[in-house]
Amino acid sequence: MNDRLLVELEKLLAEIPKSVPVFVFGGFAVDGHHGSLTREHSDVDLLCWRRDVDAVREAMKRAGHDTELFSHPQDSELVYKFNTKDTDKTFGCQIIDEAPDGQFQISFWHFSKQLYPLDYIDPLYAELSGVSFPVVSLDFTRLLKDQEISFYNELKEEYPEKFARREEKYKNCLHDIKILSGGEVKVI
Hints:
By secondary structure, the protein is α+β, with helices and mostly antiparallel strands. It has a single domain, classed as Beta Polymerase, domain 2, CATH 3.30.460.40. The protein has 6 helices and 9 strands, in the order αβαβαβββββββααα. It has helices at residues 2-15, 27-34, 53-62, 138-158, 160-165, 167-180; strands at 22-25, 44-49, 67-72, 75-84, 91-99, 103-108, 111-117, 124-128, 131-135.
């Protein structure tokens, strides 16, 4: 799966105009910062600016992927992400907004409109299996993984049936946190 996803990412990046920044976050960012693939991934997580949503969606279409937009569950007026419609959900893209004081704003399903410093998305590049791609900072990667594990721990306590449907994602998040903390892992 990783090889297919990296090929799809390379294809997509070739379709996105150079003037349109996108950033990989999530599991591939963890492995990118680590310098090698450490687990199987089910998708590629991206960030893009709201002003660039149409350009990124058009690039995805040229790369062979139709997309669908999603409104935030706590604010139906807020379109906060789009995913590819393919069976495997190859790409998920969170939409970021400019904010005052050198910050940007992002929403995820479990929280909305969080502010972070712009230097979290300074252009850094990682390479896996010969594919180079832009990644978010290591600090932002760690912070997002910490927030994700907190969300899963709360979900496990409050809604065990919902957690059960996300247990594999929880295990991947624990793995990623181990990588980010310098723990020993088997490189695949």
